[in-house]
Design a protein that fits this description.
Layout: H1 4-12, E1 16-27, E2 30-42, E3 47-51, H2 58-65, E4 73-78, E5 81-82, H3 88-98, E6 99-102, H4 114-124, H5 131-141, H6 157-169, E7 175-179, H7 187-204, E8 207-211, H8 215-218, E9 223-228, E10 231-237
Parallel strand pairs: 3-8, 3-9, 6-7, 7-8
Antiparallel strand pairs: 1-2, 1-4, 4-5, 9-10
Helix pairs in contact: 4-5, 4-6, 6-7
């Protein structure tokens, strides 16, 4: 039986906890420090914008949080699980259950239709045939009900980004990462993507961590964390 102190600890524990995170690379005889001892805690359901100049370590941090890169030092805990020591197979399982990722470059598979691209993460996670209904519902929610059978080459940039967004939510992940999700879009499509991200954050309750250069986009977040030279230089509630 769980005591009250344990229950309180479970409730208050951040869904994302970054402890002393360092990422460095060796270039010849020089060591380049991309991240230099980052400490961040993010509670469930929060919308966090990560900002900073180019080269500050924003995308590197997001890649580490998704297990797409390996930390040099430090820990990353996702829902209490330290992912820094996991094998690739173990990390793939965590991604399938806990993480959705919206890439700036979409990362759609060109030989799959919009519906097939959305279904892929769920199929890899072993979902049953019922997930097909969710894929159709998600594509309808992003305004692509009439594009299910279209291949990426037949879709505009904004439509491809909306497919990528639907794909990120097919497994109902508790954590969503978005790397410059509106960076390649015009104002109208960018506003639509932001609206969808906010809807999914608020309706689905997913924790949203978004890298962006756009202060207008960031002001919709609950919190803005600014990186510079691999360090957190500010952490402010909006």
């Amino acid at each position: 039986m769980t005591d009250s102190k344990t229950e309180e600890s479970l409730i208050s524990r951040p869904i994302i906890e970054i402890i002393g995170l360092t990422r460095s690379i060796q270039t010849g005889s020089h060591t380049v420090e991309i991240l230099r001892g980052i400490d961040i805690a993010i509670p469930q359901g929060q919308f966090v914008a990560i900002m900073g100049p180019s080269g500050s370590g924003k995308s590197t941090l997001l890649g580490l949080l998704a297990g797409l890169d390996n930390a040099t030092k430090g820990q990353i805990l996702l829902d209490g699980v330290d992912i820094t020591g996991l094998t690739e197979d173990q990390m793939a399982e965590v991604r399938g259950r806990k993480i959705g990722f919206v890439f700036q470059s979409f990362q759609l598979i060109p030989t799959l239709t919009a519906e097939e691209n959305v279904l892929l993460p769920a199929e890899l996670a072993g979902a049953g045939p019922e997930v097909t209904r969710r894929a159709k519902e998600l594509l309808t929610r992003v305004g692509l009900a009439d594009r299910l059978d279209h291949y990426p080459v037949q879709l505009s940039g904004g439509e491809q980004q909306r497919v990528a967004l639907a794909r990120a939510f097919i497994t109902k992940p508790p954590i969503l990462y978005a790397d410059e999700p509106t960076g390649n879009l015009d104002g109208k499509n960018g506003a639509q993507i932001l609206e969808l991200l906010l809807e999914m954050n608020q309706r689905e309750g997913a924790t949203l961590v978004m890298v962006t250069h756009d202060p207008e986009l960031a002001k919709h977040a609950d919190r803005i964390i600014t990186l510079r030279d691999g360090l957190v230089v500010s952490d402010e509630s909006v």
